[in-house]
Amino acid sequence: SEEYPEVELRKALLILDALKEKGIDRVDVIAHSEGAINVLIAAMVNSGRFRNIVLDKPAGLIGKDTKRALTGRFIRMLFEETIIRPPLFTDPASSVSIGERIVLYTLENPASVTEEMDALTNFDIADLMTKLVEQGVMLSVISGVDDPLFPVRKQIGYMREAGVPPHEGYYSVVGGHNELSIHADKHAALALSALNSLQRKRELSSR
Length: 207
Prior knowledge:
- The protein is an alpha/beta fold.
- It is 57% helix and 12% strand.
- A four-stranded parallel β-sheet has the order 1-2-3-4, with helices on both faces.
- Helix 1 packs across helix 2 and helix 2 runs parallel beside helix 6.
């Protein structure tokens, strides 16, 4: 579809295939970073599969970007995270392990990386959010106060300029971009709480 970036549409279709294969009729989803784009596209393709979605530090909500600026912020994020990630090289969450996986993925998938960069710098999720809410999907957004990749100030500035897409909750929390993996105990609990809040609102509105 010309409506969506091809690389993100492929990921969206894989999500739908996985749900079908596992026999899951309807899901609640926590979508992080770039995952916000492909999850929202999946929901657009088949909104009946999705009930509540929490967008954690989502891509596509800061307006037009450039590859150079995004790359610079990404490198800054990696350096900042060396201080707070586990120090052992053998830990899969360590900066060394993360860096190795990034390098390996880039070398093995150069075309996909280029397409992903195009999507991350050009695709806007606000319109998708609006359409999905109209179709009955409920949404919340979690932003990191210290997120260097998709800064809160850019997100808020963009929404003030372009209009705030509909959502049921907006959480601005202390921490950077990858808190879900670095401090999973606290931040996964917050994301799950946001999902539960959406479901409670859904149930109250249906009474």
